[in-house]
Amino acid sequence: MIAQGAAFWPLQVARELDDAILHLRINELEIAMLVFKSHGDRANVVSYDAFLEANKAHWLVNEVRHYWKRVLKRIDVTSRTLVTLVEPGSCFVGTLAELVFAADRSYMLIGQKQGDNRPPPAIELTAMNFGPYPMSHGLTRLQSRFQADPSDIERAQGSIGKALDAEEAEELGLVTFALDDIDWDDEVRVFFEERTSFSPDGLTGMEANLRFVGPETMESKIFSRLTAWQNWIFQRPNAVGEDGALRRYGTGQKAQFDMTRV
Amino acid sequence: MNIMNVDYSTKIPNNVNLAEDRQVLKALEGWHPGYMDWWSDMGPDGFQESLVYLRTAYSVDPRGWAKFDYVRMPEYRWGILLAPQEENRVIPFGEDYGKPAWQEVPGEHRAMLRRLIVIQGDTEPASVEQQRHLGKTAPSLYDMRNLFQVNVEEGRHLWAMVYLLQKYFGRDGREEADDLLRRRSGDADSPRMLGAFNEATPDWLSFFMFTYFTDRDGKMQLHSLAQSGFDPLSRTCRFMLTEEAHHMFVGETGITRVVQRTCDAMKEAGITDPNDIARIRALGVIDLPTIQKKLNLHYSLSLDLFGSEVSTNAANAFNAGIKGRYKETTIDDDHQLKSSTYPVMKMVDGQIKMVDEPALTALNMRLRDDYTQDCVKGMLRWNKVISTAGIDYKLAVPNTAFHRQIGEFKDVHATPDGLLIDDATWAKRKNDWLPSTADGDFIASLMKPVTEPGQFASWISPPKVGIDNKPGDFEYVRIES
Fold first, then answer.
1. Domain range spanning residue B451?
2. Interchain contact B105–A (C-beta under 8 A)
3. Contact criterion met (CB below 8 Å) for A207 and A81
4. Does B9 fall in a domain?
5. What is the pLDDT, as a whole number, of residue A250?
6. What's the CATH number for A32-52+79-196?
7. How far is B183 from chain A (nearest CA, A)?
8. Taking Cα atoms as reference points, which of B361, B364, B346 lies closest to residue B401?
9. A249 CA to chain B: closest CA distance, Å?
10. CA neighbours closer than 13 Å in the CB half-sphere of residue B24
11. pLDDT digits (tens, 9 = 90+) for B99-143
12. B104, B107, B360 member nearest A191 (Cβ)
């Protein structure tokens, strides 16, 4: 690991992902939606996660784990619609599976796609999904997801190490929708079109509500739900401006939105 | 494949190339058994084995699209038929006015479109359920055949909406399609979505009134949806309108024949006073004041189907390019209604007044006004029959404020002339304006089946011409077969 340095895979991915997110946030203001996909061998990701867990006392492993925690937090507070598509050939395992849980919506394919002989996708949980990567309000993404019934976490924990197909993942509540090939393209297209037509500020608020469920910490008060509402909704032209949603409500005329998201 | 002609090679006749659309074909074939179960549980009560002289669509060419033959209703070929695609069609109104019509559901408007299609779809099976007992009291084989024609075509209209749901709305579309078979007219737990479709259709006069007034609301809604920027919906509705015309015909001529028979009987008996109800009823015909009461009931229930006079939903649907106005393309304006107004009848300080509202939010009102005009046209014919017979009576539609459950006037009582009255007066006089239980019992007493070819019940005249130009004694339904 030391010899690999910056090319140590978990470190390299974290850095590249961080860079990509910052680039999109700062330079691509009109992009409404970020779509996460992954590609690779699940077994490799399982091994890296096991390595990060087994050697967590080592200073560099410790730093890499904290770095991942911060990158994922940055994704949580990104004011774009986040979608994760779990398709054949993907490797949403452990650390990378956090991208499924960070997303506002995740879609997972049931079975294969016509004309594609790769096996159906699977996701897999590891110990990394149950502690090392808390969100800004102090909960893991799964704890946040399962606020309604904490026993769902125990069920999920019981499936560690198991390759979960789309129906199992949906049953455990790990993905938003499991769709088969017949519905996949159209459902995903329509969802993308639907989200990109909404007020970006409105979405920033609603999405923050659903991402940061439950208790607040000082950190989350500054960076998460409350700040999303204070800064991006109550006083922005998309809501209260002349052609904003509140002014035009009830007239049948569509509000005009400034589609940039910050 | 020729779009004009219908492919009968698959289980489901269609002109949408289902044979090559495996996914939708699979979904529709999966839905089919549930539909057949629904038809046998909730379709016409009895007569399922009878041979009925029905028309079946074999083409969507307006010059000749149907052929007539004897069919057992469960074997009717319900199919998916869309009017031919208009080349380079553009969205004819709203925010996207002038842009190419959508061939796929625009994601932005998906939820609204789905809701409109589900509501339209829900009314189709509902009317079949409402009319299911009428076959047993049909006043003639001719009328029985018309009833069943209307029923199978309402069934086909359900198919049309289900096709749109299954083809364009994925998983939720399939769930909605199943729910259309689950809801039941008048059911306490899962009723149909709109009020008028949960009312009973207890007798044949109600049936004629229903096809005249309520199906005409359907016609107006289909006309508005036929303008839709979502092209598959527009094409579906355009073909449905071709069939719907027959349903209007059944209502209009049905009531004409009832009025004719009453006038003839009065003349023969030398009765000139239309309010001499007991003597007229003794002749075995329905007196004109009772016909007026039925008309009041069905017209007011049908007005409720147009929703609130001022409606943001209607405005949104128009602005989104999803539901237009009646004959939108022939209206001479900006088709966006950004600044125009429309007069709306409203309650202001306890009085009925016309108030100018932004035209965009007054679309329901406008469609309802178009509807009323359309209703009044057919009524001229009924009044002509009455005046030709020398009887001093006029049938008329009641005031908009009369007997309403939805919109501006739902909390007040008004007379058919539009005078506001208090609760006590309403309770006292209600039976003068709406059919009472006694009126219903009298009409029910006339509902004796007549099943001899060429014979008609005492309360209705024969039609002037037969269906498909058949002679008067044609056996439209072979009951024992």
1. 18-478
2. yes
3. yes
4. no
5. 82
6. 3.90.226.10
7. 25
8. B346
9. 9
10. 22
11. 999 999 998 899 999 999 999 999 999 999 999 999 999 999 999
12. B107
